[in-house]
Amino acid sequence: GESVGLHLPTLSVQEGDNSIINCAYSNSASDYFIWYKQESGKGPQFIIDIRSNMDKRQGQRVTVLLNKTVKHLSLQIAATQPGDSAVYFCAENNYGQNFVFGPGTRLSVLP
Amino acid sequence: SAVISQKPSRDICQRGTSLTIQCQVDSQVTMMFWYRQQPGQSLTLIATANQGSEATYESGFVIDKFPISRPNLTFSTLTVSNMSPEDSSIYLCSVEDPLQAGAVAGTEAFFGQGTRLTVV
């Protein structure tokens, strides 16, 4: 099917390698952050979240790192699989406000 | 977690016409959100739809171009009016709901599958 984000920055990784996707956020007052995964023809889906008072959080095969000093967020995916191929967005939220989404990165997993 | 059904999933429309996109949620929610995702870009919030009051539009979006209805707590529509090729985008309906088990943040944004609109 067609893909969204035909002109998004692309990260290509070999299957089995680790992936690191980066995101710069804009609001130093944001309370929490979420990483979303968007597969072709679908809406974004929740991967993992982190609060502003944390600097690291781990899930299954994924880790999110937060550096508030430089307003930077990263998503690490261990042992990347073909099913991880998608567009990844970070989103920030200040309690009571709406989500603001980052520009997105396309992850392409090579066999 | 909220389940959102959006239709149509895609459409090809003539310029100058209008398209109404429907969004149905499986639970009652206070606010529903409409986003636009242009080719190669991220999600941009168009407006917040509140039941019983007028929608709140973000900068750059106006009611005449994107009228929104919110007749009850589970349904909303977004109309893209007087379309031009620049309106070709994916339009996404979203709600915010309490997070799934194991999450730590406040709420999570749940999305429909989107409506891919092509204006010719």
Q: List the helices and strands of chain B in order.
A: EEEEEEEEEEE
Q: What is the tally of helical segments of chain B? A: 0
Mean of the pLDDT scores of chain A?
89
Greatest chain-chain interface? A-B, 34 and 33 residues
Any idea what the shape of chain A is? globular
Strand fraction of chain A equals over 45%
Shape of chain B: globular
- Regarding quaternary structure, what we see is heterodimer
Low-confidence runs of at least 5 consecutive residues of chain B: none
Helix proportion range of chain B: under 10%
Strand content of chain B: over 45%
State the total count of DSSP E strands of chain B. Answer: 11
What is the ordering of alpha helices and beta strands of chain A? EEEEEEEEEE
The assigned structural class of chain A equals: mainly beta
Number of strands of chain A: 10
The percent of residues in helical segments of chain A reads under 10%
Radius of gyration of chain A: 14 Å
